Amino acid sequence: MKICMVGAGYVGLVSAACFSEFGWTVRCIDKDPDRVALLKGGEMPIYEPGLENLVRRNCEAGRLSFSTELAEAVSEAELIFLAVGTPMRRGDGHADLSFVFSAIEEIAPHLEGFTVITTKSTVPVGTSREIERRLQELRPEADAAVCSNPEFLREGSAIQDFTHPDRVLVGIDDPRAQQVMERVYTPLALRNAPVIFVDRESAELAKYAANAFLAMKISFINEMADLCEEVGANVQQVATAIGADGRIGNKFLHPGPGYGGSCFPKDVSALIRTARESRAPLSLIEQVQTINDERKIAMAGRIVRAAGGNVRGLTITILGVTFKPNTDDMREAASLVIIPMLQEKGAAVRAYDPQGRGHAEKLFDGVVWCDSAIEAIEGSDIVVVLTEWNEFRALNLAAVREHMKGNMLVDLRNIFQPEDAKAAGLGYISIGRSASEVAPA
After folding, report:
1. Which domain covers residue 30, as residue numbers?
2. pTM over 0.70
3. Would residue 236 count as lying in a domain?
4. Which of 25, 87, 183, 253 fits as disulfide partner to 239, beta carbons 3.0 to 4.6 Å?
């Protein structure tokens, strides 16, 4: 099978690499010549564990290639995936579909034979039908079917998620297109991964509903953590107890400074907008968004309170600036709110992130970037764990204290134990633990 992947961003690149690993021939097209040049040279424009080796292996095997030229790839393809950006539209929070429709305009003149066009990008309900309508206007004689195949990839474990999915969801109305989609996912069907076929509107909405539900779990446990602190409970013990219930599950019940990334914020916003326009407002999801926005601000306030209410003239070390570990993605990261707030209050900020520095340096002014956690900690008054990279868990807290000027550790991911911090001579503040479990400064 010959596949054309339109877009070499996170979703497009991972999907193209994985489909080529299945044995299909994939041509990945992107308008950015610098990105394509990097990929042709074997360099990755994003960080995702295992992706570089996967891309290199399939390029060498001749199954995967990259180009800025769309025409030949489209004309030869049996299946075209649209994996272009659908960012939050300024002003109204809706998904910006301009890249999707622009891609359709470029694809239409080159369609030959029966072709399945599938949205991989997260798109609002009705997008597949709108693509179909535009195609009919542009090429009424074209033999094409449009379907929806949303991705459910987690940054940091995307390859595993693609090759061993909980499910593959396909929204489809055309029997011929269903045969094509069944064929492209045959390698997963052989592994007994469920491939679920539904109507297009259901597939489009299911993607938003899934992300909104997960975002809701995060906001729920963050509010529960605040209650735990007030009543003397331990949020991690509460999360373990409720997560053991099969109806709830233990995923996304880890308190922190709020969700971020490329999906949850924009998808929650777009779903809220769609619901309001459909006169079926989702008040619960609207509150999830509000809780998350306020959470990041509250965490900056927690750091200031750890300093006794004033951080002016203090040096604060931020460990981890990406929105989660195992990625270099800075989109909607809590650091984008917290670091500027600390700087506005007069703090000097030092930072270290194992993968995020390349993108983060362009987003912050006045931050001193370091090459290791210990270097970043040197001479600091307060150390803040903002992203739970595994290497931070291995830090020797006695060494941390030795390199600090002050002694306060603010752990916004609960990766350390209070007794260990206390033994190292550190003041320790975490999330969702009672006062008796927090080491004093």
Report:
1. 2-198
2. yes
3. no
4. 253
